[in-house]
Amino acid sequence: MNWYGIKAIYIHEMERFRRTLFQSLASPIITTSLYFVVFGSAIGSRITEIDGINYGSYIVPGMIMLTILTQSISNASFAFYFPRFTNTIYEILAAPLSSFEIVLGFVGAAASKSLIIGCVIILTANFFVDVRIDHPLLMMFFLILTSITFALFGFIIGMYAEGFEGLQIIPILIITPLVFLGGSFYSINMLPEFWQKISLLNPVLYLISGFRYSFYEVSDVSLFTSTLTILTILIGCIIFITYTFSKGYRIKD
Amino acid sequence: MKNILEINNVTKFYKNSVKALENVNLNIKEGEIFALLGPNGAGKSTLINSICGIVNFNTGTIKINNMDIVKNYRTTRKMTGIVPQELNLESFETVWNNVNYSRGLFGKKPDHNYIEKLLKQLSLWDKKDNKIKELSGGMKRRVLIAKALSHQPKLLFLDEPTASVDVELRKDMWDVVKKLNENGVTIILTTHYIEEAEELSDRVAVINDGKIILVDEKDKLIKKLGEKTIKIELFEPIEKINGNLSKYNFTLDQTNKIISHTYNLNSNTTDITELLNDVKKDGYEIKDINTEQSSLEEIFIKLIKENNNELVRN
Known about the structure:
The structure holds two protein chains of two kinds.
Chain A: H1 3-19, H2 21-43, E1 49-50, E2 53-54, H3 55-86, H4 89-94, H5 99-128, H6 136-160, H7 164-180, H8 193-199, H9 203-216, H10 223-246
Antiparallel strand pairs in A: 1-2
Helix pairs in contact in A: 1-5, 2-3, 2-5, 3-5, 3-6, 3-7, 3-9, 5-6, 6-9, 6-10, 9-10
Chain B: E1 3-13, E2 19-29, E3 33-37, H1 44-52, E4 59-64, E5 67-68, H2 73-78, E6 80-83, H3 95-105, H4 112-121, H5 137-149, E7 155-159, H6 167-182, E8 186-191, H7 194-200, E9 203-208, E10 211-217, H8 218-225, E11 227-234, E12 251-252, E13 258-264, H9 272-281, E14 286-293, H10 296-313
Parallel strand pairs in B: 3-8, 3-9, 6-7, 7-8
Antiparallel strand pairs in B: 1-2, 1-4, 4-5, 9-10, 11-13, 11-14, 12-13
Helix pairs in contact in B: 3-5
């Protein structure tokens, strides 16, 4: 293993995060605060509790998931697309790095950034509501696994994007709607039966549900199904990346 | 001298079925400076990128230090460094971080003393904390060289190293290249500046339309394909070339005072002593004699023209 190479990519990417620390952290903090104002205060005054949990506290796991998903995707996609755009990718391609090591460096950094942001959101949420974490290890398991999985997904977007617009299409058109419709701010039990069934087709629902369970021991679907879903997405991303790399990852051809 | 690089029957097609390289065979000796000449789109960069692992080639083998670059990519890539044609750098990073990043990518543990020495050697030490965007074009080119040398490669590829740099800087770069070579680095450079190849290289290859059409030592090439012109200036103008001079295919300039004869350096058809004696025998007084040898550029143009004509015929 080229550990120095992996470390170089990782540190290089984290350095970019450090350089833009204010933008990186200010955005999720402000967004979280706004969600609390809009959803927590305005809507929360009408929906006091869901499954016995205060509404403001109930939406915290969903908000974290929303940010983790979008940040993991955007960090990883941008991190890999940017050197392609500036042509500095030549150096990574010419280095004695396996495709696995390249992915490890980029995805590791993107997932780390998301984890930091996730922790910042938990801290921010504490200023507005009481946040209880019943199963901290399980919470970390979901947080880490989701960060890695969606960083891998972002990496795929970074490999395939043909322009900066391409980086935005999937997060905006697919991920954000799936998160909003995946029970981030409500329980699917509040929906009519038909829409409940439709919601079960949304994979993000399972992630949010499992993650929420680690906080308050309440969930829309079983913990096993949630874990299975995230692992399936993870394996799917790994297979897709492996396939793309075997074909010269659209850059070497 | 042993071969540090062996390229055998390498062919490369791009996605759109464009053949970029066709059965390329080439050996590079350890310690030499090798120039790869060719017009734009001839396949120079594709060949270098194939060797360095930046693009995949379709068929053939490439060996560095007798090791296959696909099977032993970790070992072989550690031995190579590449300076790309364009100034591809992370603008917001400092010189220091950029160069150390490259060293890390190539699997070498940090060595700040070596990087310091390298930056000093390339006159970049006082710019080490500057961001790339604050540097001039020449400085950026040096940073690219520093990055390529950060992991102490044995084989350095310079893809058009002096493209779009001014004359002064070009000479400066040449000095850097010569110094690197003196320190034991084998250098392969692509260029379309013939004077660059003429100034730096030991051997030259000409590539056109993805095929290597010639490989030879630079001096031999000039000698083999080069032409020399002898220009004899006479005191008095002459009307017509006749007498003993008619056997030399002399041409007469507009002033009717300078007669020129072009001959191939490799052929023994022209005896200069005899030629000068013939001029004297015909009663002409010589005012001055001047000789001009064809440059690598003229040879290159001639070769490419011949090759293109052949391609059209086929």
